């Protein structure tokens, strides 16, 4: 198995820079982007820089060609797979898993099976490529294979043998041609621990890239939210990363909305399991059907955590609300500062002040930037009244 080659793998293109220089450049680039927002002079809070060795999830590719297995990340701007046996970004547990995983996939790809073609002829094939999603959950490892063809019984037996031989693996699943994941073997449900709540993680659910960044973002969210209490809307809530901390304040009533049925089912199960009674779940495509005055009436604060495309329609809807219905605070979490610029300008035009912003760098030595920002409707009224 080849040594990893950080200089040509596409995951961390700025690794050749010294850490101090890299962080200085990233912060300056971030501030330039935010400073382009019209009519805004936010206070830049201390950036959150996550160190190497904290990444808890990884998306890798594998292929078996000419009796050689490649498992790793794609070379920058190509589909060429760079073999990885250790990655500076990944957690120690994920790195420890890479060699056994490589050996397992090598055996997995050598299994032959006979299938019928569309012309009803028999053909011998192998599963020789795919993607693999690794997650270092709080109680063990979760593995999801993405394949183009259905494996056979021998593949299933090999999976069972591999998982049972590795005590750190909680669950192994696969998805065939983008179908919903099938759990092949589960020793225990992978879990996420947030604010003393244990939340089961559905296969393929989105999580922040590191536990350290998740913790830092929750802390800043609660800081920005103070002293608001009451009705809060958590939009694009996903699995509920920010829902649970807000729900710990019993006087809060949380409306959690997302379009992912998988994530919401996981949240519903967690709410019942943890006996959380102050959260209402709404399954809603917020791109097509953003919350309007009917849903936001009486809501004191809104959390918005959209995908990279941003939350244009939702921000537009909030900006156009009657003044007496507009939430007092908006905490915006963005994984794309460039789309955030447009969303921020919509909120500012709608009467909000862009108060504060924090850079969150959880993809070390990359171009990727995340942020958490605070908007207030009336900066002179900080009592949530």
Based on the model shown, name its key terms.
alpha/beta; Rossmann fold; OB fold (Dihydrolipoamide Acetyltransferase, E2P); 2 domains; 9-stranded mixed beta sheet; 7-stranded mixed beta sheet; 28% helix; disordered N terminus
Q: How would you describe the overall organization of this protein?
A:
The chain is of the alpha/beta class. The chain folds into two domains: 19-51 and 207-376, 3-Layer(aba) Sandwich (Rossmann fold), CATH 3.40.50; 57-200, OB fold (Dihydrolipoamide Acetyltransferase, E2P), CATH 2.40.50.1070. 28% of the residues lie in helices and 29% in strands. The chain contains nine helices and 20 strands. Strands 1, 2, 14, 15, 16, 17, 18, 19 and 20 form a nine-stranded mixed beta sheet that branches. Strand 12 (191-194) and strand 13 (197-200) form a beta hairpin. Helix 2 runs antiparallel to helix 3 (153-165) and helix 8 runs parallel beside helix 9 (337-349). It starts with 18 loop residues before the first helix and ends in a 9-residue tail after the last strand. The relative contact order is 0.13. Residues 1-5 and 381-385 have low confidence and may be disordered.
